[in-house]
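Sample intake sheet
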Amino acid sequence: MIQVVERSSLSGELKHFRDGVEVQRVPSELVIPAVPGEYYAYSSEFTEKRPMYALMKCKANKARPIAAAGDLGHEVNLLFLFGSPIQAQVCAVRAAHASGLLGDSVNGELFGETWIAPAGITPENFYELRSRKDVVALVETCQATCSKREVSITLDPGALIAMMTDGGKYGLFFVKGLTPVSIQIDACHILL
């Protein structure tokens, strides 16, 4: 029996091929925290039903439903909001909670601070940094751009966003695709 594993670039689903037959398995729904010093590069898709972005270990599904916010705590960092066919918004989870977007049943003290900003680099620079696993450039880009401490950004296709948390996570994501109900990203992050 031959088994090959591939990661779908759009959905982040793991595709397993056994003897030429595709068997799909969804990444883990468990809370699997990022490991300090491990570099993660991945693609993910967020939807209206799964708009929460949890910067966790690559084996974990990054896109989570709002109902999971209380279980994710410090692991969840961002929330995508969908609107027009060509625009979406991303906001820090604490700001989303303060605005009432997560409902009343979640304690806002569970979440850490997350800051976001336009990354100020080209897509070519992003993909080079991502493939080289350049931690120094990743952290420097995030620190330089997130110093403005923005908590919400309107996204367009091709947007490149830097993110930084009070818990030591640094990341970048590139908006590859955007519809009224979904967003596809390529991303990388590290927990220091």
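Comment: Residues 1-16 have pLDDT under 50 and may be disordered. Helices lie at 69-72, 93-98, 123-132, 135-145.
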